[in-house]
């Protein structure tokens, strides 16, 4: 059985780690380089580093910060935010990133997924999908959740898998920062539909939420931010409790 992964997410704005609720009301959560090292030391399986305003501000993720974070960690490291070209991905990988996460740029030009998978391999390409449930349907949103579209979550997820994405990072905007649990029904449907790993994001508030997303949501990995940044759930304790619930994790 494949082990389930625990992934702290560092949302970066103006060089600092921030965290909000439902994608707004951001507050400072510390220095990203120091946090990255701390999480690697605590036993995180991977890290995700997202420059959350890069797309909105039409600029590229800071290569220098990626380099500093990469120097401090010995675990796989995904970088996202404003990535829209093969050249940019090449530079990020050369600065120490193991994978890249694309979101808005993939929706605007879906061929980018094919290009990145062809050039760097599917294992390098994570497609992040921010979606909001409106009535009974999930719709994709762009630019840090600020731009709604009429694209449906499950159709889009299937398309990017077919184009060569190696992983899906699905964030429920309805659940983000609420600490009420992950969107397990949608996650389970994604897991059933796709043959690539699904990372659950949005809603972690207690250990039980992680157990639930692995058991009910069929997630391959669980990503969280504030519960880790503010010391509410220590990663070693989380993994110990997951193990006690017969969920395979790397200790």
From TrEMBL:
Organism: Algibacter mikhailovii
Top EC class, one word: lyase
Gene coding for it: hisF
Stated family: Belongs to the HisA/HisF family.
InterPro entries, per the entry: Aldolase_TIM, His_biosynth, HisF, IGPS_HisA/HisF, RibuloseP-bd_barrel
Metabolic or biological pathway, per its Swiss-Prot or TrEMBL entry: Amino-acid biosynthesis; L-histidine biosynthesis; L-histidine from 5-phospho-alpha-D-ribose 1-diphosphate: step 5/9
UniProt keyword Hydrolase, yes or no: no
GO cellular component: cytoplasm
Reaction(s) catalysed (UniProt annotation): 5-[(5-phospho-1-deoxy-D-ribulos-1-ylimino)methylamino]-1-(5-phospho-beta-D-ribosyl)imidazole-4-carboxamide + L-glutamine = D-erythro-1-(imidazol-4-yl)glycerol 3-phosphate + 5-amino-1-(5-phospho-beta-D-ribosyl)imidazole-4-carboxamide + L-glutamate + H(+)
Protein name: Imidazole glycerol phosphate synthase subunit HisF
């Amino acid at each position: 059985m494949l082990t389930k992964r625990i992934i702290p997410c560092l949302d970066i704005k103006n060089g600092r780690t921030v965290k909000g609720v439902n994608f707004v009301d951001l507050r400072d959560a510390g220095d990203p380089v120091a946090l990255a090292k701390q999480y690697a030391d605590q036993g995180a399986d991977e890290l995700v580093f997202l420059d959350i305003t890069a797309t909105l501000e039409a600029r590229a993720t800071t290569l220098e910060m990626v380099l500093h974070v990469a120097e401090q960690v010995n675990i796989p490291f995904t970088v996202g935010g404003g990535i829209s070209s093969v050249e940019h991905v090449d530079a990020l990988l050369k600065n120490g990133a193991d994978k890249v996460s694309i979101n808005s740029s993939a929706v605007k030009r879906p061929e980018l997924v094919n290009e990145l998978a062809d050039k760097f391999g599917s294992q390098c390409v994570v497609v992040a999908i921010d979606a909001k449930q409106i009535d009974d349907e999930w719709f994709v949103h762009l630019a840090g959740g600020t731009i709604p579209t009429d694209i449906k979550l499950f159709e889009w997820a299937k398309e990017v898998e077919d184009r060569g994405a190696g992983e899906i990072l699905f964030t429920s905007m309805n659940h983000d920062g609420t600490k009420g649990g992950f969107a397990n029904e949608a996650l389970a449907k994604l897991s059933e539909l796709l043959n690539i790993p699904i990372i659950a994001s949005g809603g972690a508030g207690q250990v039980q939420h992680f157990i639930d997303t692995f058991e009910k949501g069929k997630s391959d990995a669980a990503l969280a931010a504030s519960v880790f940044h503010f010391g509410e759930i220590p990663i070693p304790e989380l993994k110990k409790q997951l193990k006690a619930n017969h969920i395979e994790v790397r200790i």
